Amino acid sequence: MRLHRPKPRTIRKGLTSLAIVLALGGVSLVSYPFATDLWAGRIQRGLVTDLADISAANYRLGNIQVGEPLTRLEIPKLDVDVIVVEGTTPAALAAGAGHYPETPLPGEKGNVAIAGHRTTYGKPFSRMDELDEGDLVIMTTPLGKHTYEIMSRPGVVDPFDWSPVTDYPRDGERYLTLTSCHPEGSAQYRIVVHAKLIKSTTGRITAEGS
User: Fold this and answer.
1) What is the rounded distance in angstroms from the CA atom of residue 15 to the CA atom of residue 85?
2) Which CATH number applies to 33-202?
3) Is position 190 annotated as part of the catalytic site?
4) Could you identify which of 48, 59, 167, 173 might form a hypothetical disulfide with 142, taking C-beta atoms 3.0 to 4.6 angstroms apart as the criterion?
5) Domain chopping of the chain, boundaries
6) 181 labelled catalytic
């Protein structure tokens, strides 16, 4: 049986089509993080106002729904200033950072846990691995401002190991745990850092911190 070889013109057309597909795929990979950053920025602008509108009474009762603003989080060393929403669902984390619902509110006894993106949706925790002992994390809520101090450099755990959130702490004190994916752009591991509350200022504080 005689085989028919593809004509050069057919080969060229096939290669051109493949090149277009690869180029479009490359553009999508490059533009996706940029697009998510824009989307998170849009969400953040609305959350600033929404957080300021939450009454102290509702906040104290924990009447915060998934996706609603919970606290302003600042990490001066990393130039991070982000509104954290309630919940860690994909939709909630489109804001950039979310509060684990099963953990306490900022300033309360126990371990407040916050998850944040490293490469998309504003990437608030992109430089999380640069944190060191003594660095500060400030959380501002309708009830006051809470300053936490990083206890040690971040560690890396299995993505299915929830003990840094659920089993910490054991002494009844007030702590904060920040988590994100590791390494950047991968969910192979989880990077975790712990901080301890060192100061609280009670009283109504606006989302702008004044």
Assistant:
1) 47
2) 2.40.260.10
3) yes
4) 59
5) 33-202
6) yes
